[in-house]
Structures are given as structure tokens and as C-alpha cells.
Amino acid sequence: MPAPIIRIDNIVKRYGPLTVLDGLSMNVMPGEKLALIGPSGSGKTTILRILMTLETISGGHIEVDGEQLYHMPGGSGLVAADERHLHRMREKIGMVFQHFNLFPHKCVLDNVTLAPMLTKGIKRPQAEKRAMELLDMVGLADKAKSVPAQLSGGQKQRVAIARALALSPKIMLFDEVTSALDPELVEEVLNVMRKLASETDMTMLLVTHEMGFAHDFADRVLFFDRGKIVEEGKPADIFRNPTQERTQTFLRKIIAAGHRV
């Protein structure tokens, strides 16, 4: 068995007196497609932000691709990671957010090439060649010279996916990437993610309220509530035969709201 590409060991996350994650432990295997579901405020997005080092942890340890994320060797043991270590670890991970965060004054091609050129020192011709391959993959090669204001929400989100992929991460994080979109634009973004899941061996973590997509996309589903994993298993087991009452209640409400599971 390969070693997990992500090990989360007893992590704690507090905001002042509020404990969002309390002793959370979980592993993610290389190439695994993982869906994190649960009510708002249950800690799902916090996990992604911690993995992306957008939030720090209050306790515990995280290992990514065989290396400590928030700690590094020092003295006779581990010490808090410095910015250089964090920067190097971030290169292993890409993240696509709910809101696209594109540079409004730059064209699509520049939005995709900027990070590889700045952070990895890749020359413009090579960066543009890779960017065009990625834009073609997400169906937007013809929009390379457009600016974000000329794109639909679904197109902007597909550019954001291409931008994250341009850094060649081993792990991709998706945080509610369709929740800001009009319903008719959701499917075009989900289709790109389906393509990524089926055609690459990239490890992918998805936070979503699209239960039908989570069912089709994931190798494993984790149901969160109040900062803890209440239940986990294969999609068919979680969505058809959940064992925990809290999971059952959540899914009943999702179905009553008209969502497919």
C-alpha cells in the first residue's frame, strides 16, 4: 500500500473562543477523489484553507507528500515552519475558490501564465504553451485574449481551474466552486472536473453541496458536523444507506430541497 499523500493528525483550529476543528484526524491516499459534505459551518472549508496554508493550525500535525506542512526539522526535533518552507509546500497544492479571484485587468492567458512565471521562473513562451493546453482542456482556448468581464461565471471558474493547474500541483482543492454560479452554468464547470477526475491521477478534495456530483465524482465521502467526521464511506453507502442519524437528517433535508443524491 502506498503511503497517504495527506496525513492530518489530531489537528485543532480555534478562532478565539470558538473551536472549529477539535482533534481531527484523516488520511488521503494518492490519486484519491474525496468529497467533503455537511452543513455550513461544519469545518469543511477550514480544512482546505489549512491545507493551502491560508489558515494556521492551533494544534496537531499535517503531513503532505511525506513532509510536515506546518513544521520542519530544527534542533533536536520539529520547529514551526518558516515562510520559505511554507512557500515550497504550497507548490504541491492548487486551490479553486468559490469566487474566481481573477485579475480583472489581465486577459485570460495572462491570468493563467502569471503564477508559473513569477513563482517558478518559467519563461513566457513555455508558460503560454502550457496555458493554451490547459485552456483547451477546459474548453476556453478561444477566450485566451478576453478579459474576465467578457466571460460568464462558468467560464471564469474554468479559467480559475486552468490557472490552478498551471502550477502542476499534486493535490487540487475545490471549495464550493459552483455555488456562486447561475444554475445553467454549473454543469459546464462540473464537466471539467469530471474530465480531470477521469483523465488524471491527481489527488482531489472537493467541498460541495452538489450531492449528485459528489456521488458520481468521489471515491470516498466524508460527512462533517461541528468540526468532526461523523461518517465516511463509499458514495453509494453514504448516500443510500447512511448509518448515523445526523447524516440521515442532513440528507433528508437535502432531498427535500430538491437536490439529487
Automatic annotation (TrEMBL):
Pfam families: ABC_tran. Residues 6-251 form the ABC transporter domain. Keywords: Amino-acid transport, ATP-binding, Cell membrane, Membrane, Nucleotide-binding, Transport. It is a peripheral membrane protein. GO terms for molecular function: ATP binding. It is found in: Cell membrane. Gene3D superfamilies: P-loop containing nucleotide triphosphate hydrolases. It comes from the Bacteria. Belongs to the ABC transporter superfamily. NCBIfam families: ectoine_ehuA. This is Ectoine/hydroxyectoine ABC transporter ATP-binding protein EhuA. It comes from Rhizobium croatiense. The lineage of its organism: Bacteria, Pseudomonadati, Pseudomonadota, Alphaproteobacteria, Hyphomicrobiales.
